[in-house]
Amino acid sequence: MKRLPLLAAALLTVPATLTAQTGPTDPVFSPAAVRAHVEFLADDLLEGRDTGSEGHEIAARYVASQFDGLGLKPAGDNGGWLQRITFQKTEPASTPATLTVTGPAGTKNFTHGGDVLMGLNAAEPHLDVTAPLVFVGFGLENARLGLNDYAGLDVKGKIVVTLRGYPKGLPSEEGAHLSATKGKIAESHGAIGMISLGTIQSMKARPWARMVQFANDPDFTWVSPEGVPFDAAPGLRASASLNDPAAEAIFAGAPGSIAAIRKVADRTGGKPKGFALRTSVQIKADSVSQRVTSPNVVAILPGSDPKLKDEYVVLSAHLDHIGISPAKPGDAPDKDRINNGALDNGAGIATMLEVARAMAQAPDKPRRSIIFLASTGEEKGLLGADYFARHPSVPVKQIVGNVDLDMPLLFYPFTDVIAFGADHSTLGPIVAKAVAPMGLKLSPDPMPQETIFVRSDHYMFVKQGVPAVFLATGYANGGEKAWGEFLGGNYHHPGDDMKQKIDWEAGARFAEANYRITRAMADGDTPPLWFDKDFFGDLFAPDATKAAK
Ligand SMILES: [Zn+2]
């Protein structure tokens, strides 16, 4: 799963009553088969499967070879299994970026990695922007949700200053989606840069000290087949995040203090009003870019129903992980720095491969066609899935639904599943019905504050109008503890490896659950549909047939 604010074992055997009654044609899922895939993918030899690395290339060949052995159809470039993507990788140059504030209190200088974190601009390797500042509250705009933070403000040619996140009380998935589009909103009003400030809530969830740890991580974006690096808001030239000393400097002489604004923002429904600041900033940031390539791996199982086989269900899982952590001063020479990503997301890929096997070998094949997508660049910002959803193997209009598998926590005999995004489409009821025969319940999102709906590959399908869910093991029967321990422990650490106490029986059951879900999507007379008046359905699939909720 893609890192954000923060994301974190009990072992029992599955009671017999939790095992579904199997019919004569129901496939059997093997714990050993799930383990075998993860064992290969999480091997140190693959060095954490970083996007663009040889380890990820080896993993991609493994998945392709599995697809081949199952008799699936290649659906990558030129009749092959791989959809090769060019990425532009941009890193800070050796001269650290600076931000200089000028205003009623004089001039103050800040350096990247201290009290400011500067974004990079690959299109301007020697970025040098000076502009006045305008505070725009949360910087959001949406008529349906009553948000119009730019009303009465002139930000043309200026740099906007926004609070992170969204007003308290807004539905979290809608809020997270809108937050992710702040740059585009600012650009649409003519702003040329954006500065973000923490709220009381966001600073608790993601303290400055933690943000600074990622200060020198490279930025990735995909490059279009025409050679153009993707940029959602190319008009925004400069971006930065500010810690308190820098935030206070830009509010010098302002009608309201940042502390007072944060208090307003901390109330339910609190929407601090914007105003022009009396300061301006100069942002200077040098960067170096290079191009790397990395593939998605794509296969199709053709549908068996002549009428429905031109509709496709996508089962996706990301194959990339975060590679090797840089050495820190004082590290022991033999310190393990390989992020093996056994659960994130070796386990998701293993699940997908076992679902593919069961479908390919089923005597009754799914009615709709199935696309199996092992994506790259997920940890860099859901990039491989975004590229695929914009350059799919089949017209996107023919893709009727997506289930994404990311980081299933296979530590305990789970008795419920979570389908992030289930409230927006008939996928909720489809999932609930599909897993019921296994004695599994569909639970509501137990961690809405994590906004997981916008944090994995399925969100990129949502943005192309495709109903999608992200399937995970639930909080019941030891799940809550396992989630807490993992997100606070081995998540995105070298400890996410085969030494963990993984419950492979749970792996087999998770594969069965996803087999049942994917089959239900592929076999139903009606494809998955957005619900009537759903925020995401209306936004991304305004013309699609909707279902009553
Ligand atoms: Zn991850």
Q: What global shape is seen?
A: globular
Weakly predicted, low-confidence segments = 5-20
- Alpha-beta classification: alpha/beta
Let me know the largest β-sheet: 17 strands, mixed
Main CATH class of the largest domain: Alpha Beta
Per DSSP E runs of 2 or more residues, the count of β-strands stands at: 21
- CATH H-level superfamily of the largest domain: Zn peptidases
**Measured on Cα atoms, how large is the radius of gyration?**
24 Å
| β-sheet strand percentage | 15-25%
Query: What is the fold-level CATH name, i.e. the topology of the largest domain?
Result: Aminopeptidase
Number of helices: 15
Mean pLDDT: 93
Total count of domains: 2
Proportion in helices: 25-40%
